[in-house]
Amino acid sequence: MLSICIKNNQIILQKQEPMPTAGEKEALLAVQVAGICGTDVALLRGYYDFSGTPGHEFVAKVVKSADPSWMGKRVTADINICCGHCTECLRDNPHHCLQRSVIGIKNKNGAFAQYLNVPLANLLSIPETVNDDQAVFIEPIAAALEILEQVEISKTDRLLVIGAGKLGQLAARVLTTTGATVLVIARHISQQQCLERAGIAWIRETELADLDAFDLVVEATGSPQGLTLARQAVRPRGTIILKSTYPPGKSIQFDFSSLVVDEIRLIGSRCGPYQKAIDWLAEGKIDPLPLIAARYSLAQAPQAFAKARESGVMKVLLDISASTNQKKHPKAPE
């Protein structure tokens, strides 16, 4: 089996990696297409001290399953694998399971491989009306939709998205469906053009000081400086949605007292409703395809990561099924 591994901050192409097996409550998936996320790039830099196969945005076909009803289906998976019996799971809060593993991120190999095994409970079926390239975006679209799960937005609200990368672009597209006024701070020409094609207004960071404060600010820069900028942009009693994550132990200088004085709500926001993301794609409510910047085979993963690390580059895809050069998958292990 062909896969890639991150070890000691390097990408290693593994050509003879043993295929995973499917347990009694699992399915074996043949990965078709996967997307490189900002988190994957961060893992390469040492985020989470991760060692293993990354990749959590993917579409695959079920080639072996303890439940035969899944056989042959095109699927993706909720990346959070929960224990089902801790206090958070019993609160129906599985994304915050105290024992969770996370596909391609924490204690679980991911989708940058020809095959991947996942629990049956995590599988989500992809309808025929959603193609593979669209399906790759299910996880980040769900993360963008989580904002609507966490806060109520009215048409009179003024919204700002800081950061026009992949997640910021999707968040802006989701927020425009509310009818509220949406602005995005975008640094790179490619980001600005992508927003313009979607009919979304953007500004430069230097223009922010001349604008009135915003009711809701989404911080999606991946940089600690983004939080400082978000604080400057939000009105008293406004809300900041924090989408960025930073490496553990990284020092962040921030005036938290100002949050108290101005009674600002700071809300962490991570994974979201996968099925809702699938429904939005199937209904044509969101079009992520303009975000695709480049595609590579799995064997070209080092070049693909190099491309993904370039400033202003949107989504880079890995055509993993193409790496087999076969029309049929090899027999899955018993």
Give a structural overview:
Helix 4 (138-150) crosses helix 5 (166-176) and helix 4 crosses helix 9. The protein has 334 residues and is an alpha/beta fold. The radius of gyration is 20 Å and the shape is globular. Mean pLDDT is 93; it is low at 325-334. It is built from ten helices and 17 strands. It has helices spanning 38-44, 87-90, 132-135, 138-150, 166-176, 189-197, 224-233, 257-261, 274-282, 301-308, and strands at residues 3-7, 10-14, 26-36, 57-65, 74-77, 80-81, 101-102, 115-119, 123-125, 158-162, 181-185, 201-203, 214-219, 234-242, 265-268, 292-297, 315-319. Strands 3, 4, 5, 8, 9, 16 and 17 form a seven-stranded mixed β-sheet that branches. Strands 12-11-10-13-14-15 form a six-stranded parallel β-sheet, sandwiched between helices. It is 24% helix and 27% strand. The chain folds into two domains: 3-137 and 288-324, Medium-chain alcohol dehydrogenases, catalytic domain (Quinone Oxidoreductase, Chain A, domain 1), CATH 3.90.180; 141-268, Rossmann fold.
**Strands, count:** 17
Number of domains: 2
**Which fold name is given in CATH as the topology of the largest domain?**
Quinone Oxidoreductase, Chain A, domain 1
Indicate the CATH architecture of the largest domain.
Alpha-Beta Complex
Assess the beta-strand content as a share of residues. 25-35%
> What would CATH call the class of the largest domain?
Alpha Beta
Order of helices and strands: EEEHEEEHEEEHHEHEHEEHEHEHEHE
Shape: globular
Overall mean pLDDT stands at 93
Biggest sheet character: 7 strands, mixed
First CA to last CA: what distance?
A: 16 Å
Helix-strand makeup class: alpha/beta
**Which superfamily, in CATH terms, is the homologous superfamily of the largest domain?**
Medium-chain alcohol dehydrogenases, catalytic domain
**Helical stretch count?**
10
Estimate the helix proportion, in percent: 10-25%
